[in-house]
């Protein structure tokens, strides 16, 4: 990608469209305006499942199991596109399939952690889209949260984060989203979200990796977590209570299926009120999203058999002796904390 861009603004059907090109690839970004929010965006076109069909071997090179790749295919239709950009709301810039953000106000965000993974795996790719333009990952950045730097300056205050709302950075991130290396890392990073909650969140005293062990179930709770990070365990716990199945130690496939069917009903209406007084929920479009994931089960592309999900490579002997999903050992709490709920008001810029 060249360093020199051409930027023009046109009107189409009364809407402002920004057109940016480096002479090779042209991007079109509509201007979104609502109340105090404004900025460029694109919903994108490239889906997880399309990448997996054409370049799935890259994910295996990044140590993703076939089972994990199956799960990411199953959640594909519910998530954002690989080159999607949102530069209009209170998180300043959001990018990719999980719309990782810069963080609201002065807080750290998840987007720097994604770029850290890109830089670690493909340093030349990082240099092409970000490094040559003065951007880097701040040394404090961990596997989940962090900050970016621009010309050596930490992008923490909101007036500095706003720089990434400009058309030139929107274009650079969009171009990065078209790159196969960045796409592969996005999918790897998205699956890595399980490290933040799957072996930590508990229901009736059991962690979710002891309760939900099928590919179908993991796809459902991962999608739920992206939408409302604090909700999977709450909804699973209520489903276990309603079914009377509160000890997963010796569950069969039939019992996990029973709990998951109740969980799918629970999350359609479940709300939670926080100590701040703010009520959140239910999960956005929960019924449709659940049926979308179920369609992959009906096609035989994922399994709802208990213990069908394999997060990491293990021997058949290990698998035979487990009634839970094996998690990586010694996960650092600093690298994988619980992901925070982000609350944004429309007057927050």
Q: How would a crystallographer describe the biggest sheet?
A: 7 strands, antiparallel
The first-to-last residue Cα distance is 30 Å
Q: So how many helices?
A: 14
Oligomer: single chain
Beta content comes to: 5-15%
What gyration radius follows from the Cα positions, in whole Å? 21 Å
SSE class: alpha+beta
Descriptive labels:
349 residues; alpha+beta; 7-stranded antiparallel β-sheet; 3-stranded antiparallel β-sheet
Describe the structure.
With 349 residues, this protein is of the alpha+beta class. Helices cover 38% and strands 15% of the residues. The strands form four sheets. It has a seven-stranded antiparallel beta sheet, with helices on one face. A hairpin with a 2-residue loop joins strand 11 and strand 12 (206-207). Helix 3 (111-121) packs across helix 4. The mean pLDDT is 94.
Describe, in short, the structure shown:
With 349 residues, the protein is α+β, with helices and mostly antiparallel strands. It has helices spanning 48-61, 66-75, 111-121, 123-129, 158-161, 167-177, 180-191, 194-197, 208-211, 215-227, 232-243, 253-266, 286-298, 316-320; strands at residues 6-12, 15-21, 26-34, 37-42, 85-86, 94-95, 100-101, 135-137, 148-150, 153-154, 202-203, 206-207, 272-273, 279-280.
């Amino acid at each position: 990608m060249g360093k020199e861009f051409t930027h023009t603004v046109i009107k189409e059907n009364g809407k402002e469209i920004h057109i940016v090109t480096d002479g090779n690839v042209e991007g079109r970004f509509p201007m979104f305006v609502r109340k105090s929010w404004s900025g460029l965006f694109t919903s994108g076109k490239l889906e997880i499942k399309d990448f997996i069909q054409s370049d799935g071997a890259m994910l295996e090179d990044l140590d993703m199991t076939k089972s994990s790749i199956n799960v990411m295919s199953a959640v594909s239709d519910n998530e954002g596109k690989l080159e999607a950009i949102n530069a209009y709301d209170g998180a300043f810039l959001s990018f990719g399939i999980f719309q990782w953000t810069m963080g609201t106000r002065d807080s750290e965000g998840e987007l720097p952690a994604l770029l850290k993974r890109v830089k670690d795996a493909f340093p030349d790719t990082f240099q092409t889209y970000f490094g040559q333009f003065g951007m880097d990952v701040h040394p404090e950045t961990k596997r989940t949260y962090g900050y970016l730097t621009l010309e050596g300056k930490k992008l923490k205050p909101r007036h500095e984060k706003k720089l990434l709302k400009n058309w030139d950075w929107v274009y650079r991130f969009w171009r990065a989203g078209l790159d196969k290396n960045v796409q592969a890392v996005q999918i790897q990073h998205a699956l890595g979200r399980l490290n933040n909650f799957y072996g930590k969140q508990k229901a009736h005293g059991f962690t979710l990796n002891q309760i939900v062990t099928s590919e179908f179930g993991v796809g459902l709770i991962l999608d739920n977590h992206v939408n409302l990070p604090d909700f999977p365990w709450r909804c699973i716990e209520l489903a276990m209570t309603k079914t009377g199945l509160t000890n997963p130690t010796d569950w069969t496939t039939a019992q996990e299926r029973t709990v998951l069917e109740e969980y799918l009903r629970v999350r359609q209406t479940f709300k939670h009120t926080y100590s701040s007084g703010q009520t959140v929920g239910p999960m956005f479009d929960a019924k449709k999203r659940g049926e979308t994931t179920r369609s992959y089960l009906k096609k035989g592309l994922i399994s709802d058999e208990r213990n069908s999900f394999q997060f990491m490579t293990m021997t058949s002997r290990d698998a035979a002796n487990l009634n839970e999903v094996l998690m990586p050992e010694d996960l650092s709490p600093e690298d994988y904390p619980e992901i925070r709920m982000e609350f944004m008001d429309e007057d927050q810029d």
